[in-house]
Design goal:
The structure is a single chain. By secondary structure, the chain is of the alpha+beta class. The chain is built from four helices and three strands. A hairpin with a 2-residue loop joins strand 2 and strand 3.
Length: 99
């Protein structure tokens, strides 16, 4: 049997990616600007973390326009949802083992 710490997903080790995934799990979609404000990061920092999540297949990106302004929205993928739930379960097991 694997130790709960071995079941943690390294992609979610960053507090920023943890925040992004948490926001996306409870919202159908979230815009770049909404995520930036919610998590309190710079454009470049958010873009870097979103790229990591996208490259791992955990988020889906849609780009469009609202009037003349670009609008980028993010959604969690089924693979992302499953991976994040497994990560949270591993964290929960670790916390329960402290009792």
């Amino acid at each position: 049997m694997k130790s709960p710490i071995e079941q943690l997903n390294k992609v979610f080790d960053s507090r920023i990616r943890l925040g992004i995934m948490s926001a996306l799990m409870v919202n159908e979609e979230v815009s770049f600007n909404e995520l930036k404000e919610l998590i309190g990061v710079t454009d470049g920092n958010l873009a870097t973390h979103m790229k990591t999540l996208e490259e791992n297949g955990y988020v889906k990106v849609e780009k469009g326009f609202i009037g003349r302004k670009t609008n980028t929205t993010y959604m969690v993928t089924k693979a992302g949802e499953k991976a994040f739930r497994l990560h949270l379960e591993a964290l929960e097991k670790m916390i329960r083992s402290l009792d």
